[in-house]
Every structure is written in structure tokens, then in C-alpha cells.
Amino acid sequence: MTLPRRPPPADPDLTERPGPAVPGWVAVLTGLTALTGAAAALWRASPLRTVELPPWQWAALAACLVVGVVSFGGLTRGRTGSAWVLSLFGRYRGSVRRTGLVWISPFVLRRRIDVRLRHWRSEPIAVVDAEGSALRVVVLVVWSVRDTARALLAVDDHLGYLREQVEAATARVLSQLPADAFRGDAPTLRDAEAVGDALTRMLAAECRPVGIAVFSAQPTRIEYAPEVAAAMRRRQIAVLDAKHRDSVLTGVIDAVDDTVTRLTSRGLVELDDFERQALVKDLTVAFYTRSGGPAEPNHQE
């Protein structure tokens, strides 16, 4: 018995949280104030003046310079649709999703990540259906980064992880049904909505632990591999031809039965068993040929 596969576990301690950041105007105002104080102290200590600054004022001057450099050095621009992931000494310190001018400590490592809604179309993926027929499938995935911490820190490359999971999930889902139902009306891979729903659920479960939200995964093209396409096409034509013959034959039998019944019930003809069989045979051939069935070949000697 095959147990259902569980998605990879997520690190409960690694989740996105707001990072330390302040609006940019606060940092600009602080930096200007610090630089103004430093300029005033330097002016007092200029050679044109005889005032000598005590040591504590020189310390205040140095502090003002440091505050000014840190204030302006931490200014950055927050873009719509992106976020900053902050880390210090290898430890996650938070994420910043602010837009516009923002101040982030210049002592932390900042990495930008795209959090917009994105789509990706795969290259043709080689899979097999439930009957072992080789297929080529193209999948369109709509996704976005929901947890920036996990997307950058829980996996080496979240884009590569997504592509690999698309191939794996596609192979698993499409192997559960045949591409076409040549016998009966069983479910097939031609039901794009059902296949897309199953693929979306499986892919979303696999990508959730790394902070990726999958909204839709739909196969845009399912076709047989070139090495089996011709054989499958002939098989499809044969099945369609057989269905057409069955429907035509059913209609012909109903028409012949109705015709013979009307002729005999109204007393237009009196038929014994031999004549009735002959009439049925002639009417069947005539109606079947007229309805699109193959005509009987004429053998010329």
C-alpha cells in the first residue's frame, strides 16, 4: 500500500516579521540636525576665533558627525512590489515592505526580493499518462512570494525550487489518468479544469514551506510525444470511425424496423419469414449506404 506523500516541513521559527526601519524624512531631519550642530561646533573652533572647545564639545562634534553619516548612509528607496530582507551576522532581523524613502540601519545586510504577482510558462515537460503513453506538457504557473524570510533563507534558490516542483507535480498528476479514453467515457487529461485544480493543490502544498504562494497551475498544452503521436492519431481516428459506424447502424436498424412495421401493419404487403428477411436485408443495405456507411463493393468478373 502506497502512503500519500507529505510536503516538506516548514521551519516554525523562520517566518516573516517587520524589520527595523523608520520613514526617510525622520532620518533626513536627524541627519540635518546633527550636521548643523557639527558645523556650529567647527565654526566656534575656527582659527578666526579665539575660543577653544573643551574636550566634551569635541566629543559632541564627533558624535554629531557619526549621527549624520549613519542617518544619511541608511537612506534607501522602497519600491512597490518589492521588499528588503535584513540579516545581521547571518541571523534574520526582519523584512521591510515600506515604499518611498525609508531608513534602514547601514550595519545590516539588505537583500531585495520581488513580491509581485508573477507568472511562469514552463518548457515542454516529458511525462507519461496512466497507460504509459509519452506526453509533452506545457504548464502556466501564477505565483508570488508570500513569506520573504522563507523564500530567501529557507531554500537556496526559490525560483529554481519552483521550477523543479512544477516538473515533479506535473509528472505525478498526469500519471493518474489516461490522455484519451479509447474505451468508454472514463475521466481523461482532456478535462483541463480538473487537472489544473489537482496540479494547483499539489504545487501549492509543496511550495508553501518555502514562502511561495501558488494561485494557479494550468496545463496550456497536452500533446503526445513525437515518437508516439502518429500511432495515437491513428488510434483516435479508428475509435471515432467505430463510434460513427455504431451510431449510423443504430439509426439504420430503427429506420428499417419502422418501415417494415408500417408496411405489414397497414396490410400493404404480406410477407413470410423468408421474404421478411430479404426485405430487411435490402432495406438495411440501402439505408446504411445512404447514411454514410461504406457501400458494398461491386465485383466484376
Give an overview of the whole structure.
There is one protein chain. With 301 residues, this protein is of the alpha+beta class. It contains seven helices and ten strands. The strands form three sheets. Strands 7, 8, 9 and 10 form a four-stranded antiparallel sheet that branches. Strands 1-5-2 form a three-stranded antiparallel sheet. The protein has a three-stranded antiparallel sheet with strand order 4-3-6. α1 runs antiparallel to α2 (55-73), α4 (158-174) crosses α5 (192-207) and α6 packs across α7.
Summarize the structure.
Residues 294-301 have low confidence and may be disordered. Strands 7, 8, 9 and 10 form a 4-stranded antiparallel beta sheet that branches.
What features would you highlight for this structure?
single chain, 301 residues, alpha+beta, four-stranded antiparallel β-sheet, three-stranded antiparallel β-sheet, 7 helices, 10 strands, disordered C terminus
* Mean residue pLDDT: 79
Number of helical segments with 4 or more residues? 7
What is the molecular shape? rod-shaped
Which residues sit in consecutive blocks of at least 5 with pLDDT less than 50? 294-301
Largest sheet: 4 strands, antiparallel
What letter string, H or E per element, gives the SSE order?
Answer: EHHEEEEEEEEHHHEHH
Please compute the radius of gyration using only Cα atoms.
39 Å
Helix content: 40-55%
What fraction of the residues are assigned to beta strands by DSSP? Answer: 15-25%
Number of strand segments: 10
Structural class: alpha+beta
Distance between the termini: 66 Å
